[in-house]
Every structure is written in structure tokens, then in C-alpha cells.
Design brief:
The complex is a heterodimer of chains A (396) and B (298). By secondary structure, chain A is α/β, with parallel strands linked by helices. Chain A has helices at residues 18-23, 34-44, 59-70, 83-94, 106-119, 147-151, 164-178, 245-273, 292-307, 325-331, 348-356, 377-387; strands spanning 2-3, 9-10, 14-16, 27-33, 49-52, 76-79, 100-104, 127-132, 157-160, 187-192, 200-206, 210-212, 277-280, 286-290, 312-317, 319-321, 337-339, 363-364. Chain A folds into two domains: 3-212, Rossmann fold, CATH 3.40.50; 277-387, Rossmann fold (3-Layer(aba) Sandwich). Helix content of chain A is 37%, strand content 19%. Chain A has a seven-stranded mixed beta sheet with strand order 6-5-7-8-10-9-16, sandwiched between helices. In chain A, strands 13-15-14-17-18 form a five-stranded mixed beta sheet, sandwiched between helices. In chain A, strands 1-2 form a two-stranded antiparallel ribbon. In chain A, helix 5 links the parallel strand 7 (100-104) and strand 8 (127-132). The longest helix of chain A has 29 residues, at 245-273. The mean pLDDT of chain A is 95. With 298 residues, chain B is of the alpha/beta class. Chain B has one domain (55-272): 3-Layer(aba) Sandwich (Rossmann fold). Chain B is built from eleven helices and seven strands. Chain B has helices at 2-6, 18-26, 58-69, 86-89, 104-118, 132-137, 140-148, 194-201, 214-230, 253-261, 273-297; strands at residues 76-80, 96-98, 125-131, 154-159, 205-209, 234-239, 268-271. In chain B, strands 2-1-3-4-6-5-7 form a seven-stranded mixed beta sheet, with helices on both faces. In chain B, strand 1 (76-80), helix 4 and strand 2 form a beta-alpha-beta unit. The longest helix of chain B has 25 residues, at 273-297. Chain B is globular, with a radius of gyration of 19 Å. Classes of the chains: A alpha/beta (396), B alpha/beta (298). Chain A binds chain B through residues 48-49, 51, 75-76, 78, 80-82, 84-86, 88-98, 114-115, 118, 122, 217, 225-230, 232-238, 241-242, and chain B through 1-2, 5-6, 20, 52, 74-77, 79, 86-87, 90-100, 103, 106-111, 113-115, 117-119, 124, 141-142, 144-145, 149. Bound molecules: thiamine diphosphate (TPP), iron/sulfur cluster and magnesium ion (MG). Iron/sulfur cluster binds next to loops of chain B. Thiamine diphosphate is lined by residues 82-85, 101, 131-134, 158, 160, 162-166, 171 of chain B.
Chain lengths: 396, 298
């Protein structure tokens, strides 16, 4: 093993493409937390630079990423001054043509949001972990995923992980998706704080001697601003710096391109993650549609319903952006009711689904828990029975 | 690669915009200060040629001066922010990055570190150029922490003592008593001690000045850049009056800048020993190169 100037070891790795890394390389089972799963993914992603700012429940992830840096798997890592500084530094570093990772939670996401929502416009292909946490008052540090609603309209790709395994796979895939030349926008990988980050689950992982191919600073729709990568970039933003018709026009066509890029990410979500949704029992009358941790509870309810012989199906939504509108519409075309359990008060997933299907009236609003409460499976069972016109004795 | 990558091959030149070709042939890329520097501004193709800033704006003049003073324009990246200055900075023939208001020093922290990891053996100059509001008010924490962390880039504050771009509101850098928008009864606290703050935060080369003397101003800009390459964060607070918001008649702009030299912008240059060492070495090298060239010509 060789050593870097700062004394860190320099692990010898075999660099491979994402298809091999994610879907072909042999894996071994580990029993680890969601935070470990995210950091293990970063370890294998051949990240150039990670920037950290602590907030519960994210801190655990970025501590572990710090260890991954100390072990030599990442070239540069530092704790920034706060989240706006963190997210701005990511935007700055990205102009030099490097692979970047950071993560945050609820209030941290809000504080960094001004910078984060401009990453897509700046074509920053960074990966952002969102380990969900309550925002707004009164204070709670528990997992409520309402902050994801604020991320949904900035052009970034958003994946929502159900468990530790998803967290590992989605995070790795995120780097490849973000860096596709026809995508080249940030990818956020969200999962519930504590429920996933601080709980252990089984995760199948490939060897850490494997790493994702080096970041290719040339394969980009906007060349790195490094005074090296042709075509010579004398200026990038000038026309937008004036308040004139050109600036309105440039902004509008540029943003159209961002959202088209977001749509184009879908084919890579199929390639690396087998598609944006997972469907169980596609012929069912009633579907539970859920993402993240709510999908784990939905899966449990679906299993009970199977045991009781009820006509219930499950749709797990893995991609929040691009939203799998066609896929969901297709599965539910003959459904009589859709139940949408969520970990937030506003029901952002429910709203998306209602806006997606032609017969929004079949969508049941909830059940929802918030403030970081757990989501009892019984609440979902009650809605299933109501939808099927059956009695249910709800006992919590 | 950098000089090479902007230089078109001879046969390709006729397909490129004339403006671009002239910039390469007659601009400051790869030239010394004697060939194309502040001393002969107007006699070569400048990096900033046009801008939409107010006529007589002293900030516009200083920005022109910054670009004419760059030691290596072909290896420089500037980061700006909301405020009047970016209207000109963004039009210079040097890569310019714009994020959000006040985030310039955080962006530069990421950029500088990423450059150093990608090009460990090369010189890449990163300079943030922002207004007093962007540097000392909204961007305060990011400015200070970039210095505290010892980030190796240059911070230039265009201090017009007001929020110029948004129509003349008072800023932390406005002098006490100034009647400006959002301080209708006059600003009731002191102008922020920017250079003291820079010193406390660990800047290794700090200058406060009213840039009335072209040669001196250019020297300071170059020193700040040379020192940032090797030692640590450097900071220039330059008086760049806003003749619009302070109602300075265009013909009095220079006189006002001169007057400020004796008032809030007395020349103050601070450097650590390590910074001094770099400055002495680089300036001696420049002198020797100049002498050698003269001897060759003779
Ligand atoms: C987050 C945010 N807040 C406020 C603004 C509005 N804004 C744009 S420029 C500016 C003032 C600029 O003042 P200064 O930084 O001193 O630069 P000057 O125009 O005086 O050169 C303000 C308040 C903004 N663009 N973004
Ligand atoms: S408003 Fe003031 S600082 Fe801005 S361009 Fe005009 S004169 Fe210059
Ligand atoms: Mg100002």
C-alpha cells in the first residue's frame, strides 16, 4: 500500500463501470445501519471531494464519510461553516470538474436550499444525501420527510430509499445517473432519519476493492471551468447577468433543458435500479402507493392483506423526480382505490398521484403520521378494509 | 495547457469571431505587465471591453484595473456575486462563476480545493470580487470562515459603502451617519472594520486603499494573488465609489477618491513574514527577468 503526502493510505482499487459495480459484481451480506450503507456506497463511488456540516440525523453519515476519507478512498474532505457554505462550496468545486458528495437533514436542507436549488441550473452533477428530519416549529429531530417537498421543484433527480439496501444501491447509482452527459444535474438520495440511518438491516455489498470509474470532466454538456477543457470557456453566465429579453429567454430555455434532463434520467433509473417503481400484485383492486419508510410499512400491510386473501397490491415509488407518472397510471388503470401512507402532514406523494391519474377521486388521503412518529401498519389495514367495504377493528 | 487551449491554430482563426482572435493576438494572455498591463491600458486588447455600469463609475474603472493586473489571466477564474460589479466582471474574457448573493468565498473554497486536487502541479488563480454588501453583510460568515480555514485565494471587496445594485440601501460598510435608503435617519452604527476582521481571521496579506495610483493598485492586486498561491488567504478592500447613490458628479469622482485616501481609505498594507518572503522573491524575479530582457534587446 502506498501513502499520500498527508499520511493517508492510498488503497489500490479496481475501477469498473456502474453496470458491473451495481448489477454484476459479486456481493456479500452485511448487517449495517443506513448511515453505514450510505457511507459504504460513497467509499465505492470514487468520490473526489466531500463537504460536511453536522445535523442530526445526518451527522452519522458524514462522520463515516470522514473515516472513508481518512482511509484514503476520497481525495478531499472538510467541515464547512454551515449548510449554505457547504452547498455553495459544492457548486464551486463542481466547476473544477470533480465528483462530489454531501448530505444533510431537514433544517440543514432548508438553510442550504438557495444554493441547492441552483445546482441543476448550474449543471452540478453532485450527489446529495437527505436523511429526513422535521422542519418548522415546534422542534423535533425525528424523521418527518416534509423537507422533500421543497426539493421537488428544483430540477434535481430524487430517489427515495425504503431501507438500508436501497440506501446503498441508490447512492451508488446516483453518481452514474448524475454524470450522464444527457442528464448532468444533481441526484438527491433521501431516506428517513433514524428509522433507516440509525437502524441496522441486511445490505448486500460488493467488495470495497472495487470502485466506480474516475469522474470524466470532459464528458459534460458544460465544460469544466478549469482553463484546460476545450472549448475555451471565456465566460459562462454573462448574458444572464443583465435584465433584458435575452436573460429571460436564456433562463427559460435553460430551465426547459434542465427539466428535460430530469426526464432523461428515467432510462438510467431503469438501467441501474430496475425502474422507478416496484409493483406487487398488479391485478389488485386496491393499491397501497408509498415511498421511503412508508413503503416498508406498506409492504407489511400488503403482506397481511395477502394472508387474508384481499385484492391488494403494492406500488413502491423509488423515483420522486422524474416522477413515474406513466408507470403508475398504467398499473392503476383498473384500480378502485389507492391508499397513500406518508411520513409528513401535507401529503406530497398523495398530491403527485392525484395529479397524475385521470380519476384522482379514487385516492385515499393517508394515513399520514408526522413529527417523526412511526406509521402503524394497522392504520393502513384500516384504510384497506374501508376501501373494500369490510369491517376492521382498529387497535393501536 | 491553458495558454494553448485558448490559442486557435492559424488555419482555424479565420472561422472564429474577430474579437476572439484579436484578444489572443493582442490581449494580455501570456504577456508581461510591461507588454500588456495597467501602465498601457488602452493600447492592447483588454479583457474587459464593455460593460453596462453607470458612466463615471469608479468601480468599473477598478474592475478594468484588476483584469489588467492579473499575473496569469489564462489561468485565472473569478467568482462574483449579485451587485453592480458582476455586470462588468461577467463580461471579462476570463472564466466567471456566479452562484447566489454572498456565497462567493464558499464557492471559491470548493473551487480552489478542487483545482489543487486535480492539478497539484499547476498554478490556478481564484479571485472573488464582490461588493461590500456581498462580502461583509450577507456573505459575512462565508467570507470570514474561508479566511479562518486558510483557503488559498484572493478576496477583493469593491467597497462603495452602499448597496448600489438594489438602489442605494445602507450596508455594514456605510459610514456612520450616512443617510441612505433603509437608514432614513442616518446609519446609526460604525463602518465595519473589514481589514481588522481580516487580520483576526488569518488573512496573510491585507490592503485597504483608494486605488488612485494605477501602479500601486496593480502592485497590490498582484501581491495579493502571488501570496494566495503559496501562503494563505489575501484581502483587498478597495474604495470604488458609487457616484449615483452618493451623488458624486462624474467629473468629481477622481477628486473624491483622492479625498478618501486621507479619510476612511488611508493606505494600509499588512503582510505576514511568510507573505513578505513570497513578495520579495517574486518581485526580485520579475525585476531580474525585466533586466535580462533589456539586456537581450540591447
Ligand atoms: C439572497 C439575496 N438577497 C438579496 C438580494 C438582492 N441584492 C442583489 S445585489 C444587492 C446589493 C448589492 O450590494 P453590494 O454587495 O454592496 O454590491 P454593489 O451593488 O454595491 O456593488 C442585493 C441586496 C439577492 N440577489 N439575493
Ligand atoms: S449604481 Fe453606483 S456602483 Fe453601481 S454601477 Fe452605478 S455608479 Fe457604479
Ligand atoms: Mg456596495
Amino acid at each position: 500500500m502506498s501513502y499520500l503526502d498527508d499520511g493517508r493510505p492510498q488503497p489500490v482499487k479496481k475501477l469498473v463501470d456502474m453496470d458491473y459495480l451495481l448489477n454484476e459484481a459479486p456481493r456479500e451480506k452485511h448487517f449495517i445501519t443506513g448511515a453505514q450503507a450510505m457511507a459504504e456506497a460513497v467509499k465505492r463511488a470514487n468520490v473526489d471531494m466531500a463537504i460536511a456540516y453536522p445535523i442530526t440525523p445526518q451527522s452519522e453519515v458524514m462522520h463515516l464519510v470522514g473515516d472513508v476519507f481518512a482511509q484514503g478512498h476520497i481525495k478531499e474532505y472538510y467541515r464547512a461553516e454551515e449548510e449554505l457554505g457547504t452547498m455553495s462550496a459544492i457548486a464551486g468545486a463542481s466547476r473544477a470538474g470533480v465528483r462530489l458528495f454531501t448530505a444533510t437533514s431537514g433544517p440543514g436542507l432548508m438553510r442550504g436550499l438557495e444554493a441547492i436549488v441552483s445546482w441543476s441550473g448550474h449543471r452540478v452533477p453532485a450527489v446529495l444525501g437527505i436523511l429526513t428530519r422535521v422542519i418548522n416549529a415546534p422542534l423535533s429531530i425525528q424523521p418527518d420527510n416534509i423537507e422533500m417537498a421543497y426539493m421537488m421543484h428544483c430540477g434535481a433527480v430524487m430517489l427515495h430509499a425504503e431501507n438500508q439496501q436501497d440506501t446503498f444501491d441508490f447512492t451508488l447509482a446516483a453518481f452514474a445517473i448524475a454524470e450522464k452527459v444527457d442528464v448532468y444535474i444533481p441526484v438527491a438520495v433521501a431516506t428517513e432519519g433514524f428509522f433507516v440511518t440509525h437502524a441496522k438491516g441486511y445490505v448486500d455489498m460488493m467488495s470495497e476493492d472495487l470502485g466506480y470509474l474516475d469522474f470524466d470532466s470532459v464528458a459534460s454538456p458544460v465544460p469544466a471551468m478549469d482553463n484546460e477543457t476545450p472549448p475555451a470557456r471565456i465566460q459562462r453566465d454573462a448574458p444572464v447577468q443583465k435584465s433584458n429579453f435575452m436573460s429571460y429567454l436564456i433562463h427559460s430555455v435553460w430551465q426547459q433543458e434542465i427539466w428535460d434532463s430530469n426526464k432523461r434520467a428515467m432510462k438510467y433509473i431503469y438501467q441501474y435500479l430496475g425502474g422507478p417503481i416496484e409493483v406487487q400484485n398488479p391485478e389488485a383492486d386496491v393499491f397501497i402507493v408509498a415511498s421511503g419508510c412508508a413503503a416498508a410499512q406498506a409492504r407489511e400491510a400488503w403482506r397481511y392483506a395477502q394472508e387474508d386473501g384481499l385484492s391488494v397490491g403494492l406500488i413502491k415509488v423509488k423515483a420522486i423526480r422524474p416522477f413515474p407518472a406513466d408507470e403508475i397510471r398504467d398499473v392503476v388503470k383498473n384500480a378502485k382505490a389507492l391508499i397513500v401512507p406518508e411520513h409528513n402532514i401535507i401529503g406530497w406523494l398523495c398530491k403527485e398521484i392525484k395529479a397524475t391519474i385521470p380519476n384522482g377521486g379514487i385516492v385515499v388521503e393517508g394515513p399520514r403520521v408526522y413529527g417523526g412518529m412511526t406509521l402503524p401498519v394497522e392504520l393502513i389495514m384500516k384504510e384497506i378494509h374501508d376501501a373494500l367495504g369490510l369491517e376492521y377493528d382498529l387497535q393501536l | 495547457m491553458s495558454l494553448k487551449y485558448i490559442t486557435p491554430s492559424e488555419r482555424f482563426k479565420r472561422y472564429l469571431p474577430k474579437d476572439y482572435v484579436e484578444l489572443i493576438d493582442y490581449g494580455p494572455f501570456g504577456k508581461t505587465q510591461d507588454e500588456a498591463g495597467p501602465g498601457n491600458m488602452g493600447q492592447f486588447k483588454e479583457l474587459v471591453e464593455e460593460h453596462p455600469m453607470c458612466s463615471g463609475c469608479w468601480m468599473a474603472y477598478y474592475i478594468r484595473l484588476i483584469f489588467a493586473s492579473l499575473p496569469k489571466p489564462e489561468e485565472t477564474v473569478t467568482i462574483g456575486t449579485a451587485g453592480c460589479g458582476r455586470l462588468a466582471i461577467s463580461q471579462a474574457a476570463v472564466p466567471f462563476i456566479y452562484g447566489n448573493y454572498g456565497d462567493q468565498n464558499a464557492m471559491a473554497s470548493g473551487l480552489t480545493r478542487a483545482f489543487r486536487l486535480r492539478f497539484p502541479d499547476k498554478t490556478k488563480d481564484v479571485i472573488t470580487i464582490a461588493g461590500d454588501g456581498g462580502t461583509m453583510d450577507i456573505g459575512f460568515s462565508m467570507t470570514m470562515h474561508s479566511w479562518i480555514r486558510g483557503e488559498k485565494f484572493t478576496t477583493i471587496m469593491l467597497d462603495n459603502e452602499v448597496y448600489g445594485n438594489t438602489g442605494g440601501q445602507s450596508s455594514g460598510m456605510s459610514p456612520k451617519g450616512a443617510v441612505l435608503k433603509m437608514a432614513p435617519l442616518g446609519k446609526d452604527f460604525e463602518k465595519m472594520p473589514a481589514t481588522d476582521l481580516a487580520k483576526a481571521a488569518g488573512c496573510v496579506y491585507i490592503v485597504r486603499m483608494s486605488p488612485t495610483n494605477i501602479k500601486k493598485a496593480a502592485k497590490v492586486i498582484r501581491r495579493a494573488i502571488f501570496v494566495a498561491r503559496e501562503v494563505g488567504p489575501t484581502f483587498i478592500q478597495a474604495y470604488t465609489s458609487c457616484n449615483i447613490e452618493y451623488s458624486i458628479p462624474t467629473e468629481d469622482v477622481f477628486a473624491d477618491a483622492k479625498a478618501q485616501e486621507k479619510d476612511r481609505f488611508t493606505f494600509d498594507e499588512y503582510m505576514t513574514d511568510a507573505a513578505k518572503e513570497v513578495i520579495e522573491r517574486v518581485e526580485a524575479e520579475e525585476k531580474a527577468a525585466k533586466k535580462a530582457k533589456k539586456a537581450m534587446e540591447a
